Amino acid sequence: MTLDFLVINTFSTKTLGIADISTYDTNPPVLIAPTMEITIPGYTVPVSIPFIPLDFNVYNSITLGLNSFAGGTQPLPDGVYFLKYSVSPAYLNYTEKNIMRTERIQEKFDNAFMKLDMMECDLAIKKQSKVTLNSIYYMIQGSIAAANNCAIDTANTLYIQADTMLNNFISNNCGCSGNNYQINFV
User: Fold this and answer.
1) What is the pLDDT of residues 120-146, one digit of tens each?
2) Nearest to 164 by CA among 108, 111, 99
3) pTM of the entire structure?
């Protein structure tokens, strides 16, 4: 038996999708207590929830215990998630991964990107906006890469920097000068 899983993008800020890609000795597998432990950003204690083998498991704020059913599902926080899939005995049979979840910042980025073509700006300012958005995009991707390689501090630093730049970009609404593009790319 070799335990493994993939985190699959659900393209939703409200869900986390995890697919089991393990190889088991029997089909269907005979397992005792298949469990996914998820440590959510901002929390120190992992949430331990049932994991269905050979399936695509989808979790939300209710199943992760972040809010009650009465409030409906809420967006999950961005940040580094620590995931551990285990079967009994858990100290012998487990696999774990770190992932940087970026769905919320990606949604904000997508909205800013869609506004880019609708802005009434001169050519230099549009070029500067594209340069700024590209910089933000690379920081988000760098944050994901750092988390995948267990560089948690770097992942968080890059995420915070990308979020700050994105917030400034959105609040300035194309109020940049275009000088960065002219200095660095012309």
Assistant:
1) 556 666 778 888 999 999 999 999 999
2) 108
3) 0.83
